[in-house]
Design brief:
Layout (H helix, E strand, L loop, with lengths): L10 E5 L16 H12 L4 E3 L28 H6 L5 H6 L10 H19 L7 H12 L4 H13 L10 H4 L3 H10 L1 H28 L2 E7 L7 H5 L14 E5 L9 E6 L3 H6 L3 H11 L4 E5 L6 E6 L9 E4 L2 H12 L5 E3 L7 H9 L4 E4 L22 E4 L8 H5 L11 H15 L6 H11 L4 E5 H5 L25 H16 L15
Parallel strand pairs: 1-2, 1-12, 2-3, 3-6, 6-9, 10-11, 11-12
Antiparallel strand pairs: 4-5, 4-7, 7-8
Helix pairs in contact: 1-9, 6-9
Amino acid sequence: MSDSDRLFQRDCGILLHPTSLPNAYGVGDFGPAAHRWVDLLADSGQSLWQILPLNPAGYGDSPYQGLSAFAANPVFLSPESLHAMGLIPQELLDSLRLPPGAEVDYARVYANKVQLSKRVADTFFKLDEENPLRVAYAAFLQDEAEWIDEFACFYALKDSFGGVAWTDWPTPFRDREPEALEQARAELADEMARAKLEQFLLRKQWDAVRATARKRGVRIIGDLPIFVAHDSVDVWCWRHLFRLNPDGSPSVMAGVPPDYFSSTGQLWGNPLYDWSAHRADGFAWWRKRLRQTLAWVDVVRIDHFRGFEACWEIPGNAKTAMDGHWVSAPGREVFEAFVEDRGLPLPVIAEDLGVITPEVVELRDRFNLPGIRVEQFAFGTDPMKDTFSPEAYSPNCVAYTGTHDNDTVVGWFNSVAGEGSTRSEEQIRAEREEALAYFGGDGSEIHFDFIRSLYASNGGAAIVPIQDVLGLGSEARMNTPGRPSGSWRWRLRSFEPILAPMQQLKTLTAETKRGAHAPVMTPLAS
């Protein structure tokens, strides 16, 4: 494969979800802090910013259980940017401030964002229809017509029914009876208009962030979960595309067998696809989904890529993932449709972790997709550990110290049996000793030992969670797989603590000829 066929050419960057950005409003958003973050990345020589899914978070505040595969999360609305647009007064901006903390208090944040959204709508819909904002809003609704009306209806209905899952709505609304939907659209017109306005403003704010990123030479890597949440507009609206019971509940669910994180496997609860229905319309929903995601980011990481070759199918009434089995999926056909739409190289990273068979590798390589390597897995008993060692990284892979699902490097190094993984105390001790021998240090800067080896490797891209740049412990872990609540909350209190570590990273980036110092810069996607 030639350099021109690869997505990455000694790129490097940071994994930081926008919710983790610092500001005075309780959660990171698409406002000034996002622009400053892009500048910090560029000033330290980084060429990539990786984020998690931007969809409206569902169960457990998880961005991987989104209420829509096409919409963005209103939690990202920036009060500061809305004030700068003249849509909210100073007194409201001041009243929305929350005490600084190292974790997001989602209950308080959501309450504030609803208040913000209502005030913005009151102002916005009083503007003259010839106002440039109103003209842009009308154009946005036309451009997004494929999904936005159904999303707004679902969003408004869900709120009117107290937030319960759509399968628990009154039967006429659950089953989308035409008269019930007509009633909903009439009675909830204001709520639907507000939901659409939120999406317009989110897109406007994010487009400004992307413009800053393009100007500074930073590509944004997004995330597309292979499955969608059962409690989502996608399943409610396009029920025929999923394997469901007559009452709408999943007949089978997605997950994975016992693994590093859980001795009973992971039961995700997402419904599996009815692939025959997707094949019948040429995978239209999937094509729209990829197109929509790439309208927000430059490159997309597909989470659980192996599910395109085969999925772990679990009975809908199961309590754990133990009783599942593998069922094939038409990944080759789906990706051929993507190539038909976009050509090669596809701006896609294949998250190829888990039970990886020769068939998964063949699917990944057929389309020249970079896989990922996690350096934490280079130590211990993983049967594929040698592939996770920096010496084995190829120019067509994306290498990480750890992902959002892993403990931080410092947390991993100091971990305790039974907390966050299935490893025993003996296994943890052996991993720690192996890492110390590999790096030849005393472990006092284990996080930077990892980063240094990652950047020095041949990996096409090296990406480090911001928690590892800071050398934080398990208290800063973003997600613990299998834990139903308490994840996705970590955030920076301010930018101040990261300034010195980013300077250190800048020096390493130059020494290893990555990012802004790479011999060949990767052009931004058009």
